[in-house]
Amino acid sequence: QVQLVESGGGSVQTGGSLRLSCAASGRTFSSYTMAWFRQAPGKEREFVARISWSSSSIGYADSLKGRFTISRDNAKNAIYLQMNSLKPEDTAVYYCAGGQSGRGYPDWGQGTQVTVSS
Prior knowledge:
Oligomer: single chain
Radius of gyration: 13 Å
Distance between the termini: 39 Å
Order of helices and strands: EEEEEEEEEEE
Structural class: mainly beta
């Protein structure tokens, strides 16, 4: 099991940028596929991006390609989400999650709030 703690959320204006971080503890982190999800008020949680343990495989929600970038640093037990050209519809609680490849995401952080104002 891996414990996950997100940080870096905040309030920005439309067009701004934020970089989210997710710090992990646990010896299996480096073998985990990691992902970011988000949940806006009144909406279901949705997939944002994922990254394989080696960073060789990366995927994004189609609607976010080109604006968001996921990365990881296994030496620091961390993953990141660089978010550019933010829009009000990006307002949500952002969660990082992790799990063994092909086995879903059993481990979740507590989330960090991102608010984008127009």
